[in-house]
Amino acid sequence: MAMSEFEIIRRNFASRGIDRGDVVLGIGDDGAVVRMPSGCDLVTVVDTLVAGVHFPHETRPEDVGHKALAVNLSDVAAMGAVPAWATLALTLPHADEAWLSAFARGFFGLAQRYEVQLVGGDTTHGPLTVTVQIQGWVHSGRAVRRSGARPGDVIYLTGAVGDAGLALRAWQQQQALSATDGEYLFSRLHRPIPRCREGEALSGEVSAMVDVSDGLAADLGHILEASGVGATLNLHSIPLSPSFVAVTGSGKYYMNEAERLRLALSAGDDYELCFTAPEAQCRRVEDIFSNFSCGCHAIGIIETAPGLRLRQADGTLLSLERNGYEHFAQEPGNAGN
Amino acid sequence: MAMSEFEIIRRNFASRGIDRGDVVLGIGDDGAVVRMPSGCDLVTVVDTLVAGVHFPHETRPEDVGHKALAVNLSDVAAMGAVPAWATLALTLPHADEAWLSAFARGFFGLAQRYEVQLVGGDTTHGPLTVTVQIQGWVHSGRAVRRSGARPGDVIYLTGAVGDAGLALRAWQQQQALSATDGEYLFSRLHRPIPRCREGEALSGEVSAMVDVSDGLAADLGHILEASGVGATLNLHSIPLSPSFVAVTGSGKYYMNEAERLRLALSAGDDYELCFTAPEAQCRRVEDIFSNFSCGCHAIGIIETAPGLRLRQADGTLLSLERNGYEHFAQEPGNAGN
């Protein structure tokens, strides 16, 4: 990169945001040096967003900055870990000052909220690609894996699902939503708030956890596969937001009950937490969530029989004809059996 | 990505290479969990290689895999740290099995050599971009920064410089080199061996260190800037390899002494270590390098006066008319004053 571009990047990224006491050496050397708390294990996540693949090219740069960090924070939360330090590998067609400044605003706005410090990075020329890596910690032995679900465990979901998928549909069809519903739904798509505090609080308390990024059915599928179990979801218990219900209840986005549930179960980008807990632990889970406004719903039960069964209010099973992701559709036992 | 692509990636990356005892949870969950040794600080580096920018599109995939890890290991070495765990964010136009398998061969071949375990990653669709991030550790307080050089310190360089720059020139001009020189020089360009053991051994022993990735003059410039000092290099002490000397001594790549030194000082991709040490420490540095075959040469001295002076054998100063990187050329005091 040319001098002026280095300057622009330095101005937008170096010494921005918070200044953690455990950072020995931040941006500007060959590597970053940080101090881990004792008695803890190091947790690392990494996720890449590619323009035109993971977000539309016309996405506002502040939303790209926010979301690139959010999707990684969500993975940290799903481990039950506390996020602390981040690195950013940014590939840009050119160093556009306005774009970078807006991107940094989105990135650091969210970083500040969870006291995450940017400690390193690399900026290169090329097609717009954003790779964020976050490090954090969890008390030794208390990381929550995907593989710990056991038959009889209750399946929980934070917040609500389907909002981001509905917003993406509206964005692609360029059809207007009411001001209130539009603001809510688009913020769920473009500026998701990862469930960091919730994830931390669940560390060592629950048997398995995953964040909902590929769609609830697909991500719960990861728990089932890793744990060697199956599950039944009670579809009438799947939490849907008031905006989701309103927008799909009539008008251009009207859907019948089955269509609505298929969207909520298969659309990605929700960044909620889906976790399982033995029944004896349910009271504890409810206590934990009394501190959090997002809420938490029991949506089903882990079973021995492999596969995911979707039980409707009348007792019949729903078929997920079309899943959000091909790799899930091809897994055995998930096609609405 | 489609099912088949996930499968290809899993086959090539999951459970490959070594299995470290300190990895609690590797690839396959939302994040990786590892255990840090006590009394140590965590060191993190990240570097991105973009096809067509950092390596020619026609580079062999095993060389891309090797080099993406090597450039990051070199940064870890420059901190005086021990590498341990890596993540890989790979953006690919499509999941070509032959390409991925060769890439993985190059990546894991080098990872094995330094006992680095791949603990996480992300594979996405898009233009070929490779971001590697490595974590390692250093005993608390013993990381080597760029900012510790003091007037009177001796400047050292491992190995030799200029080989990769000469090889890149030969590659671009598609002119044949002799078998021996060609093999050596192209391996320096495509399969650099980072100075990991050397860097670890220098932890806490030297005053400043950097790895030579942008060219010796530019990277030493980073030490000078961070330390607020200047330097004089004795150009007759700059180590050049026998192949470099042979190829530039006659024939199509003939260069006079000044041209040869300009190339050696400004070409990038050498991945040697450049470091400084107080004179009282020089005996210790020589002792350390008696264990390493790459060798280590005293090439100059840190001075109070800002800027980098390049002293030729006859006592006159050489001007680096054209530096490898624009950002360096514009820094004050480095234009051969």
Notes on the structure:
The structure is a homodimer of 337-residue chains. Chain A is α+β, with helices and mostly antiparallel strands and 337 residues long. Chain A has eleven helices and twelve strands. In chain A, the strands form three sheets. Chain A has a six-stranded mixed β-sheet, with helices on both faces. In chain A, strand 1 (23-25) and strand 2 form a beta hairpin. Chain A is globular and about 65 Å long. Chain A starts with a helix and ends in an 8-residue tail after the last helix. In chain A, 52% of the residues are buried. The model of chain A is unreliable at 323-337 (pLDDT under 50). At the A-B interface, strand 2, strand 3, helix 2, strand 4 and strand 5 of A face strand 2, strand 3, helix 2, strand 4 and strand 5 of B.
